[in-house]
Amino acid sequence: xxxxxxxxxxxxxxxxxxxxxxxxxxxxxxxxxxxxxxxxxxxxxxxxxxxxxxxxxxxxxxxxxxxxxxxxxxxxxxxxxxxxxxxxxxxxxxxxxxxxxxxxxxxxxxxxxxxxxxxxxxxxxxxxxxxxxxxxxxxxxxxxxxxxxxxxxxxxxxxxxxxxxxxxxxxxxxxxxxxxxxxxxxxxxxxxxxxxxxxxxxxxxxxxxxxxxxxxxxxxxxxxxxxxxxxxxxxxxxxxxxxxxxxxxxxxxxxxxxxxxxxxxxxxxxxxxxxxxxxxxxxxxxxxxxxxxxxxxxxxxxxxxxxxxxxxxxxxxxxxxxxxxxxxxxxxxxxxxxxxxxxxxxxxxxxxxxxxxxxxxxxxxxxxxxxxxxxxxxxxxxxxxxxxxxxxxxxxxxxxxxxxxxxxxxxxxxxxxxxxxxxxxxxxxxxxxxxxxxxxxxxxxxxxxxxxxxxxxxxxxxxxxxxxxxxxxxxxxxxxxxxxxxxxxxxxxxxxxxxxxxxxxxxxxxxxxxxxxxxxxxxxxxxxxxxxxxxxxxxxxxxxxxxxxxxxxxxxxxxxxxxxxxxxxxxxxxxxxxxxxxxxxxxxxxxxxxx
Length: 595
Prior knowledge:
By secondary structure, the protein is an all-alpha fold. The chain has a domain at 497-593: Tetratricopeptide repeat domain (Serine Threonine Protein Phosphatase 5, Tetratricopeptide repeat, Alpha Horseshoe), CATH 1.25.40.10. Helix content is 73%, strand content 1%. Strands 1-2 form a two-stranded antiparallel sheet. The termini are far apart.
């Protein structure tokens, strides 16, 4: 790279005249717009061509200094020019140069000058506050912010209040940041117009400081000022699932009014995540009734219906979504499908697949021309082809999928997909060999090593499985699935139960409450003779995550405890969830045929 040198009091010099000319011309072009903006900021007094020329020269030399890596000189020149021209864009440039040089004090100096020149400017105040926060001086930002907000228009004040959490985002002391924001907004919190937003922002800061109770109090205060305000209701929505159970009543009160469709969608997503599917479905129905033209509402409703096995309803709902999207689109481009439209095609494919309409299921997937989805859609198409008895065609489709250079994990994903297809179609040896070859190609891929271990267990290579799992744990001590798989394997074989307990307990440390790990602990309790504790754990796991495998275990433990009717009911639920689950099918056949 060429070095640039210059003498502030003499002629500037560059090594190559051609390079010098091009670089200076480029700088002049870049400065033209800045200079025009700077001129508008200067008082409309008599023109001073000498001063203007001096400022322009100062800016030019400052930019050349920045190009040369002399941040100190560049900063001094640009800040001096900014003060002389009273130009906001030059103040901002001086701040940026100081920040690039990681000189917080200099950046603060430039930001202070900018705020003095433009006390109401949002960008100036944003830089000033964020620099103070970065210097661990959040309280020093209180007085300047309050002063600036008093002079702002209502619109600018609202924008500033809304931006405060971003201004203070890098604060190391979250509680101090929350206190600072509360002091900034001490006047606004009683304002019936700005107050709800102010309380919502205060609550957000308290939540970031792990003060859920304080955040809930802020939400209540904001809603008390204006029950129809979205800001405190959105804060209450963010509190769902935290140590603030009263938040849900605030959300439901707001929903009784006229919430935005997006707000109700956010609540539905929370309910789905909390496995409260019935409540989620009721809200989805309200959403599509109240906002029939809101396409994503139909998509959400259809996905819940499919999850609940309401296949006919799901198909009608999803087709309604497609109609709304088709009406809104002028020229649908399959290669530019957004995620929602891709999801709709996938869900409709699943509905068709559940009904045995495999050709129709394939058509929906083939319509997704987005290259980014090629691997995922190819895997699904291959699985459907296998169900049609066309396993070799499905494998050929998978193996022919491209491995783009910009998708470094494509080859790994393909190998895992091929192995999964082979495993699902009772080809354990070929699946094992596929994963073994892939692991030789990608020896550092722990997910692949884990998959190979699980395949080894399925083939009865228990020593290999244990060795591979321990390698995964050694390489990534927080890989909770490996602890769980190894612990469950030991418990299932009824050996080394003490060690199995340690492994599963370790997995729970990393993923507390995970239903599948709780299932493993329950199976361990069952193998240890603690039947009632096993039932309690399995019931909690199945409630949190209705899954066919968990249903198999819960049914078996209930059956062994003499609760055969309860066991049969649980198995029925499991078969509705996944009628092809091997563990569930094997369990029901074994126990029901047992003399």
